[in-house]
Structure formats: C-alpha cells, structure tokens
C-alpha cells in the first residue's frame, strides 16, 4: 500500500514538474509610416505569435491608458434632464407633476417623510405625452437645480382624486429618464444617471388601505392610482360565477379550465369605508443623484486573435478623425496556471 502511495505521489510530482513554463510572447508590430490620412486604411504588420492579441486604437472608449477605468469630472459643467412619457385610460386631468429637492433626507418609509422636504415643481419645463404614444419631454437645462457636492432627488408626484366624481384615474408611463452633464465626451453628453441607476421607489399615501397600482422596471415607471371600489362592480355580487366552486374554470377536466384561476373569497362592499374612493397621492422618488463625477468604467480592448485562431500576420484599421493617437497591441500567452503578456505601442498621426 505504501509503495502504491509513493508511486502515485511521485507520478504527480513528475507531472507538475513537467508542466511547461509559460513563455513571454515573441511579438512585434510595425507600420510603414506613422502618418496617415483620415479614412486611410492602416496595415499593422505583425511578427511572432501569441495565444491572444488585443488592440487599443487610442481613440475615446478604446484607449489603453484607461483600461483600468475612466472617471470624468463634471461638477462645474451643468446638467440637463430628458425623458419620454405616455398616458392611457381614464379621464382625470393634471394628475402628474415632476418635482426636485436638494434637502430630502432619503427616508422613503412613508409619504409624510417625503413631503417634509422642500420640493420645487418643474413640471412646466417639459412636454408631456397625451396618448399611448411616448412623447419626448425635450432636453431641458437643470443647472440651476443642482450644485457640486449636493445630491439632488427627483420625484414624479401623482394625484388620484375621487373617481366617482372626477372620472377614473389615468395610467402614466415614464421611459428614457436621463440626467446628462453638459460636458461632452467623444462628441456626446456624459450621462450622469439613467432610469436604471436613478433608483426610483414607489411611495403610496395609503399603502395598506388604498395602494396604487404602480410599478417600476429597468425601462419604465408606471404610475396608476388606487382602485375605485364601485358598489355596482360585479365583484361585490355574491352570485358572481367567480365565487362558485363549481365554475368550470376551476375544473381541470373542463375545456374552460383556467390554470391560473383561484377561487376568491367573497368580501361584501362596505359603504362606510373611507377607502372606497379616497383622494390619494403616489410618489415615485429617485435615489440621490450627484453631478460631481461620472465613472465610465474601463475602456475595453478589441480582441483580434484568440487561442483557437491561426497565426495573425496583419491587422487593418482605419481612423476617421484627425489627431494623434497611441495605438497599443497586447499579446498574451496563457494556461490554467497563469499568463504572460507583452505590450507594443505605436504613435499614429492622422491628417485631415
């Protein structure tokens, strides 16, 4: 038994000792000139080989110098806000408004906490949808509402009036919410926050007794008021077929069977309940948004050769914008034990 053990151990050590050492890639890149015209195809000549090769052109978003991350200072550049909105159903008017606060304390536990902050109504700065077709708010300057080092909160305030007298509440939808810096990067405004990162939360005035039918996803804020409890609604009729356990929609053997149907418990209409048709507020309130910095994350490389690819002898690339660039090629050899890489940099001048 000991002999077998030591034999196995020896074989394992021999296998480990025979594991080939990772070699630094033998890799060089050259170009016939360092000056080209915008739109002219450049042929980078490659000598040697590597398991993997990556390319950085040196242009914005593909710059080796920012491979670990790119943070842009935007504190003093000002900001804009834009979104799209649409509305469907119901008849109530002037239900939705847009507010902003710089002193909200971040307590979302109840509506009273939110309303205790100072909120500025900026509804009139924007265009609003009037149908199910989403309409752009247009991009509006909000520099006067933000300041460096001071978080700002946005809120969509929705009012449900008694629906028996004012008509049914409408469904409002907000998409493409975006706070941008006036600072440009690569010719485009720098996004400070969008709907995903704005972290909106729904806060109802009566979450237990008259909750709204609102929701938030990564692409849309949907705000709809509380249910109007109409005494004439069929759900308050005890003879309604939905309360009949013999209803074929509950019978798996019936062709009318509905797998998701559940037998509800009949709850009679309470004419004395103050929550049958109340006036309520629903707010969709953002997380704190600051305008000091924008983290764009690392500039990714362009993979131009993988382990399974054959040897690469040439790489072609075209710069379209005049300027001076530092192109980088990263050549890497790798195994499960680790990797080794070599970086080649070339200065490239692009003329108009």
* Overall domain count: 3
Backbone structural class: mainly beta
Q: What is the number of strand segments? A: 22
Proportion of strand residues: 35-45%
Give a quick account of the main beta sheet: strands, pairing sense, barrel closure: 7 strands, antiparallel
Shape: elongated
Radius of gyration, Cα only, in angstroms? 32 Å
**Low-pLDDT stretches:** 5-17
The helical percent reads under 10%
Amino-to-carboxy terminus distance: 79 Å
Write down the overall mean pLDDT: 92
The DSSP helix count reads 4
- Topology as a string of helices (H) and strands (E): HEEEEEEEHEEEEHEEHEEEEEEEEE
Which key terms come to mind for this protein?
352 residues, mainly beta, Immunoglobulin-like, 3 domains, 7-stranded antiparallel β-sheet, 5-stranded mixed β-sheet, 4 helices, 22 strands, 8% helix
Structure description:
The chain folds into three domains: 22-69 and 300-351, Immunoglobulin-like (Sandwich), CATH 2.60.40; 72-226 and 276-295, no CATH class; 234-268, no CATH class. The strands form five sheets. Strands 6, 9, 10, 12, 13, 15 and 16 form a seven-stranded antiparallel β-sheet that branches. Strands 2-22-21-4-19 form a five-stranded mixed β-sheet, with no helix packed on it. The protein has a five-stranded antiparallel β-sheet with strand order 8-7-11-17-14, with no helix packed on it. The protein is elongated. Helices cover 8% and strands 38% of the residues. The chain is mostly beta strands and 352 residues long. Strand 15 (215-216) and strand 16 (221-223) form a beta hairpin.
């Amino acid at each position: 038994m000991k002999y077998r053990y030591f034999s196995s151990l020896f074989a394992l050590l021999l296998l480990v000792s025979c594991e080939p050492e990772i070699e630094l890639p033998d890799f060089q890149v050259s170009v016939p000139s360092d000056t080209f015209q915008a739109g002219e195809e450049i042929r980078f000549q490659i000598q040697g080989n590597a398991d993997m090769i990556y390319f950085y052109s040196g242009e914005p978003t593909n710059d080796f110098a920012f491979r670990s991350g790119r943070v842009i200072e935007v504190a003093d550049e000002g900001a804009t806000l834009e979104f799209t909105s649409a509305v469907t159903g119901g008849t109530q008017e002037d239900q939705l408004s847009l507010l902003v606060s710089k002193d909200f304390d971040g307590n979302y536990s109840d509506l009273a906490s939110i309303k205790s902050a100072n909120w500025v109504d900026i509804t009139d700065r924007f265009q609003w949808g009037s149908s199910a077709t989403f309409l752009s708010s247009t991009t509006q300057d909000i520099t006067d509402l933000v300041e460096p080092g001071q978080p700002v909160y946005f809120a969509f305030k929705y009012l449900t009036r008694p629906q028996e007298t004012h008509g049914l509440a409408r469904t409002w939808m907000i998409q493409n919410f975006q706070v941008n810096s006036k600072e440009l990067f690569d010719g485009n405004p720098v996004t400070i926050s969008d709907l995903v990162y704005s972290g909106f939360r729904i806060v109802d005035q009566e979450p237990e007794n008259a909750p709204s039918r609102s929701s938030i996803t990564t692409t849309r804020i949907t705000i709809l008021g509380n249910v109007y409890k109409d005494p004439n609604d069929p759900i308050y009729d005890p003879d309604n077929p939905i309360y009949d356990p013999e209803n074929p929609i509950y019978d798996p053997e019936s062709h009318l069977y509905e797998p998701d149907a559940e037998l509800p418990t009949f709850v009679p209409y309470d004419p004395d309940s103050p929550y049958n048709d109340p006036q309520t507020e629903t707010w969709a309130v953002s997380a704190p948004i600051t305008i000091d910095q924008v983290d764009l994350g690392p500039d990714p490389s362009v993979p131009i050769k993988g382990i399974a690819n054959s040897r690469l002898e040439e790489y072609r690339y075209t710069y379209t914008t005049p300027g001076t660039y530092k192109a980088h090629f990263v050549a890497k050899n790798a195994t499960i034990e680790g990797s080794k890489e070599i970086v080649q940099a070339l200065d490239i001048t692009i003329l108009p």
